[in-house]
Amino acid sequence: MNRTILFDSPFLLGFEHTRNLIERAAKAAGETYPPYNVEDRGDGGLRITLAVAGFTPDQLHVTVEDRHLTVAGKRDEAGKPEDAYLHRGIAARGFIRSFVLADGMVVEAASLEHGLLHIDLARPEPENRIVKIPIRSGS
Q1: In Å, how far from its chain's centre is CA 10?
Q2: 45-51 vs 36-42, strand pairing mode
Q3: How far is residue 108 from each of residues 7, 95, 97, 123, measured CA to CA in Å?
Q4: What is the distance between the alpha carbons of residues 48 and 117, in angstroms, rounded to a whole number?
Q5: What class does CATH assign to 32-122?
Q6: Which one in 59, 81, 98, 130 has a CA-CA gap of 20 to 30 Å to 50?
Q7: Distance of alpha carbon 56 from alpha carbon 114, whole angstroms
Q8: Domain layout of the chain by residue ranges
Q9: What are phi and psi of 131, to 5 degrees?
Q10: Average model confidence (pLDDT) across the chain
Q11: Distance of CA 102 to the CA centre of its chain
Protein backbone atom coordinates (compact mmCIF):
# COMPACT_ATOMS: atom_id res chain seq x y z
CA MET A 1 0.00 0.00 0.00
CA ASN A 2 1.26 3.49 -0.77
CA ARG A 3 2.20 5.56 2.23
CA THR A 4 0.34 8.80 2.77
CA ILE A 5 2.76 11.63 2.01
CA LEU A 6 0.93 14.00 4.37
CA PHE A 7 2.04 12.00 7.42
CA ASP A 8 5.66 11.95 6.26
CA SER A 9 5.95 15.66 7.02
CA PRO A 10 8.52 16.52 9.73
CA PHE A 11 5.85 18.72 11.35
CA LEU A 12 3.59 15.74 12.08
CA LEU A 13 5.75 13.61 14.33
CA GLY A 14 4.07 10.89 16.37
CA PHE A 15 1.06 10.43 14.06
CA GLU A 16 2.02 6.92 12.95
CA HIS A 17 -1.09 5.53 14.66
CA THR A 18 -3.33 7.84 12.63
CA ARG A 19 -1.56 6.87 9.42
CA ASN A 20 -2.03 3.18 10.25
CA LEU A 21 -5.77 3.73 10.84
CA ILE A 22 -6.14 5.46 7.48
CA GLU A 23 -4.27 2.65 5.72
CA ARG A 24 -6.48 0.03 7.41
CA ALA A 25 -9.63 1.92 6.41
CA ALA A 26 -8.44 2.18 2.80
CA LYS A 27 -7.74 -1.56 2.71
CA ALA A 28 -11.17 -2.36 4.22
CA ALA A 29 -12.92 -0.16 1.64
CA GLY A 30 -11.65 -2.42 -1.16
CA GLU A 31 -13.45 -5.49 0.20
CA THR A 32 -16.81 -6.36 -1.38
CA TYR A 33 -17.78 -9.80 -0.02
CA PRO A 34 -19.87 -10.49 1.95
CA PRO A 35 -22.32 -7.60 1.64
CA TYR A 36 -23.18 -5.80 4.87
CA ASN A 37 -25.36 -3.12 6.45
CA VAL A 38 -24.54 -0.70 9.26
CA GLU A 39 -27.50 0.44 11.37
CA ASP A 40 -27.69 3.18 13.98
CA ARG A 41 -29.28 1.75 17.14
CA GLY A 42 -29.34 5.12 18.93
CA ASP A 43 -27.41 6.17 22.03
CA GLY A 44 -24.14 5.73 20.14
CA GLY A 45 -24.83 2.05 19.37
CA LEU A 46 -24.36 0.45 15.97
CA ARG A 47 -25.24 -2.89 14.42
CA ILE A 48 -23.24 -4.39 11.58
CA THR A 49 -25.16 -7.09 9.68
CA LEU A 50 -23.29 -9.33 7.24
CA ALA A 51 -24.98 -11.70 4.76
CA VAL A 52 -23.26 -15.03 5.50
CA ALA A 53 -25.73 -17.57 4.15
CA GLY A 54 -24.47 -21.14 4.42
CA PHE A 55 -22.01 -20.48 7.24
CA THR A 56 -22.42 -22.00 10.69
CA PRO A 57 -21.29 -20.28 13.91
CA ASP A 58 -18.29 -22.64 14.02
CA GLN A 59 -17.16 -21.42 10.59
CA LEU A 60 -17.29 -17.72 11.55
CA HIS A 61 -14.77 -15.85 13.68
CA VAL A 62 -15.23 -12.32 15.06
CA THR A 63 -12.15 -10.72 16.61
CA VAL A 64 -11.13 -7.26 17.78
CA GLU A 65 -7.49 -6.28 17.93
CA ASP A 66 -6.34 -2.71 18.48
CA ARG A 67 -9.66 -1.15 17.34
CA HIS A 68 -9.68 -3.37 14.25
CA LEU A 69 -12.81 -5.57 13.99
CA THR A 70 -12.27 -8.60 11.76
CA VAL A 71 -14.95 -11.04 10.65
CA ALA A 72 -13.67 -14.17 8.95
CA GLY A 73 -15.55 -17.12 7.47
CA LYS A 74 -14.16 -20.39 6.23
CA ARG A 75 -16.24 -23.27 4.91
CA ASP A 76 -15.07 -26.84 4.60
CA GLU A 77 -16.33 -28.06 1.24
CA ALA A 78 -14.38 -31.32 1.33
CA GLY A 79 -17.52 -33.47 1.47
CA LYS A 80 -19.14 -32.16 -1.74
CA PRO A 81 -17.57 -32.88 -5.11
CA GLU A 82 -17.56 -29.93 -7.51
CA ASP A 83 -19.42 -31.87 -10.22
CA ALA A 84 -22.42 -32.47 -7.90
CA TYR A 85 -23.71 -28.95 -8.65
CA LEU A 86 -25.81 -28.26 -11.73
CA HIS A 87 -25.73 -24.54 -10.90
CA ARG A 88 -23.67 -22.89 -8.19
CA GLY A 89 -24.91 -19.37 -7.46
CA ILE A 90 -24.27 -19.29 -3.71
CA ALA A 91 -20.72 -18.25 -2.98
CA ALA A 92 -18.80 -20.90 -1.07
CA ARG A 93 -15.57 -19.02 -0.68
CA GLY A 94 -14.12 -17.94 2.59
CA PHE A 95 -13.82 -14.28 3.42
CA ILE A 96 -12.25 -11.72 5.69
CA ARG A 97 -14.12 -8.44 6.26
CA SER A 98 -12.50 -5.68 8.32
CA PHE A 99 -13.80 -2.58 10.07
CA VAL A 100 -11.84 0.12 11.89
CA LEU A 101 -13.55 1.04 15.16
CA ALA A 102 -13.55 4.53 16.64
CA ASP A 103 -12.06 5.16 20.05
CA GLY A 104 -14.29 3.79 22.78
CA MET A 105 -16.35 1.47 20.54
CA VAL A 106 -16.78 -2.01 22.01
CA VAL A 107 -18.35 -5.17 20.62
CA GLU A 108 -21.29 -6.15 22.84
CA ALA A 109 -22.50 -9.29 21.10
CA ALA A 110 -22.60 -11.30 17.88
CA SER A 111 -25.48 -13.51 16.74
CA LEU A 112 -26.29 -15.55 13.63
CA GLU A 113 -29.94 -15.58 12.52
CA HIS A 114 -31.34 -16.75 9.16
CA GLY A 115 -27.99 -16.38 7.37
CA LEU A 116 -27.31 -12.92 8.79
CA LEU A 117 -24.49 -12.27 11.24
CA HIS A 118 -25.37 -9.38 13.56
CA ILE A 119 -22.55 -7.65 15.46
CA ASP A 120 -23.73 -5.12 18.03
CA LEU A 121 -21.37 -2.29 18.94
CA ALA A 122 -21.70 0.28 21.71
CA ARG A 123 -19.92 3.42 22.74
CA PRO A 124 -20.14 3.52 26.53
CA GLU A 125 -20.14 6.94 28.14
CA PRO A 126 -16.62 7.77 29.23
CA GLU A 127 -16.30 8.11 32.95
CA ASN A 128 -15.50 11.61 34.06
CA ARG A 129 -12.27 11.42 35.97
CA ILE A 130 -10.92 14.31 37.88
CA VAL A 131 -7.29 13.93 38.77
CA LYS A 132 -5.84 16.36 41.27
CA ILE A 133 -2.28 17.18 40.39
CA PRO A 134 -0.11 18.04 43.39
CA ILE A 135 1.88 21.23 43.09
CA ARG A 136 5.45 21.08 44.31
CA SER A 137 7.22 24.15 45.47
CA GLY A 138 10.69 25.00 44.32
CA SER A 139 11.98 25.82 47.83
Answers
A1: 31
A2: antiparallel
A3: 33, 22, 18, 10
A4: 8
A5: mainly beta
A6: 81
A7: 10
A8: 1-30, 32-122
A9: -110, 120
A10: 82
A11: 10
